Amino acid sequence: MKTELEGKVALVTGGSSGIGEALCKLYVRHGAQVMISDIQDEAGEKLVAELNKTGDHARYVHADVSKPEHCERMVNETVKAFGKLNIACNNAGIGDGETLTGEKDLEVWKKVIDVNLNGVFYGMRYQIPEILKQKGGAIVNMGSILSKVGFATASAYVAAKHGMLGLTKNAALEYAEKNIRINALGPAFIKTPLLDGFDDDTLKMLEQSHPVGRLGKSEEVAELALWLSTDKASFCHGGYYSVDGGYLLR
Question: Would you say the pTM of this structure is higher than 0.85?
Fold first, then answer.
């Protein structure tokens, strides 16, 4: 039986852990070949070895998405390895600690904007020309609930994720007629390494901030990203899809 993504090639940034890892596994399970991009080389190579146990499904490339030359190289390496690019998920992201706006370290601000906002632009800047060569495809940008609302002490992250949503909408408008579907996901707080720095009390507070009473799972976000990557989402352009356990209802 033909799988949904058979013959497709996908690129996932921040693909070696968390949501990115879950999505890479789903892409392969549904027939795609995947380029895993990250700065965590050991984890990336380990995931490639796992995915390639049953065939030639994955490769790894070291890429810091805050550097445009790295984003250009990861796209070039994807095409070199698999011959084309059909799907991209710009998932790489970092947090900015817990400091008020008036106390935010300037280098922290710049780094968060560079990775979470500029990194998505750099990714699309080089992904889109290759996807156009295939007469269309899909891009999923990993936003956040904080693409829609604020969160005290996270001004850089909130600003970047708000900006990323505007960028997604604008790119979707530009390329809809060319059959590239560009959408954004809005996860709430998910059990990923991004939360490793929070203490138990903070994690408990975050759990209680979701009406469902728990944190989300990477696989729950990855399933929606997978759907947006398939032809089942053929009429979805420039959308924002929350995966938030009801967080935005409050």
Answer: yes
Among 225, 220, 211, 92, CA closest to 161: 92
| Per-residue model confidence as pLDDT tens digits over 87-125 | 999 999 999 888 999 999 999 999 999 999 999 999 999
Name the CA radius of gyration of the chain, rounded. Answer: 17
Q: Is 60 a catalytic residue?
A: no
Domains observed in the chain: 9-244 (3.40.50.720)
What does the pLDDT look like over 4-38, one tens digit per residue?
A: 899 999 999 999 999 999 999 999 999 999 999 99
Structure tokens at 195: 């939360």
Catalytic residue chosen out of the listed positions 27, 60, 157, 247: 157
Tallying the residues shown for the chain, one arrives at 250
Q: At what angle do helices 119-133 and 155-175 cross, to 10 degrees?
A: 20
Secondary structure class of 11 (helix, strand, coil): strand
